[in-house]
Amino acid sequence: MRLMVDSAKLAIEIAKDLIRAPSLSGEEKEVAYYIRDTLSNLGVDSLIIDELGNVIAKIEGVENKDPIILEGHMDHVEPGNRDLWKVDPYSGKIVDNKLYGRGAVDMKSSLASMISSITLLPDKIDRTVYLVFVTHEETAEGVAFKHALENTIRRKPYIVILGEATNLNIHVGHRGRCLIEYVVQGKTAHASMPHLGLNALSATSKSIVSILEAFEKTRSYHEKLGYSTLTPTVIECSPKVTPQIPDYCRVIFDRRILPYETEDTILRIFRKVKEHIEHEGFKIRVSILTEELRFWTGKIVKVKDFFKSWILDEKSMYVRKALNIIRTRIKPDATIGYWKFSTDGVYSAGEKGYATIGFGPGNEDLAHQPNEHVPLKHIEKAVYGYANLILTFQ
Ligand SMILES: [Zn+2]
Hints:
Blueprint: H1 7-20, H2 29-42, E1 46-49, E2 55-59, E3 68-73, E4 94-95, E5 98-100, H3 104-117, E6 129-134, H4 143-153, E7 159-162, E8 170-171, E9 173-174, E10 176-185, H5 200-218, E11 221-222, E12 226-227, E13 229-238, E14 248-257, H6 263-278, E15 283-288, E16 290-294, E17 300-304, E18 306-307, E19 310-311, H7 317-329, E20 336-337, H8 345-351, E21 356-358, E22 373-375, H9 376-392
Parallel strand pairs: 3-6, 3-7, 7-21, 8-20
Antiparallel strand pairs: 1-2, 2-6, 4-5, 5-22, 9-19, 10-14, 10-15, 10-18, 11-12, 13-14, 16-17
Helix pairs in contact: 1-3, 1-9, 3-9, 5-6, 7-9
Zinc ion (ZN) binds at residues 73, 106-107, 164.
């Protein structure tokens, strides 16, 4: 039996508390314990923190149907330059009926609304509901969510509802993302005699220009998601000594990808340029970047930075049902949209093809910005939005 509470007020209190507990990727412990304790007080049928530090709660349905999953991430990005903030990013301050702070939009208000929405559910529901709050999304979306689905839930969901900010609209997809590592090995020499060396930095600059030119000519377009993009974001060379020719240079490219683009098609232009530059004597390695993630539980996971694009058909029953209930009960002019950024949907929809939609409070353009804020009205409406979505998908 769940407690009788003012669900909207409760969500605002929870959102404030969450903002006051910093939870950078890999440091979500305090928030995870807070959420576990809050859910435990509200009453759920089971509740665990798994080995990657995810919090997973279950509200048992009376029928044996595929479950509904409400999903969000507990981590957030750095606040950045504090001088640009009007309030302390970890104060959870309310100004003009808006809640301010790092994570207000991305995505602690949403977590709070999801948690509070369970107080609006009847004692008995048909379909089991899982609340899944994951770690390390900002660094590697989909990784912790995959772990929760494969190791704890272990069932195909009926629908996954992502809580990333949508301005209370329904979102149904986004571009994917991958990181490409391009490493050039040359030959060092005294800078006064460059002809004796093979300058890895020069070869890398030449490569970047050629790769970007080739990409511009071939890049693809999707009518809903827009263009694929490619841009270099990190470069380093060694030895970093001014009178010496660098024999090593590494650059990382951020590539935003459209549905049906594969690792192979993406790397094709890189390989062509590599071949061309290698004729000059350099050795080049091109690959999708892999990284090691350390979770707050101490667990380390190796991750390949390739995250698939996904789209759920706007005409599908899931989208029609969701839009209909949100327009009827929450936001009469709600629309269907697509995120500009990437989400945990890269796993549920991109990898697995599970029906996945997004609904969340706040304006996505404010995510990762100084003075990130969300109107209190959005939090209130999101609480009812989540409860209505759960009930409509029974
Ligand atoms: Zn997010």
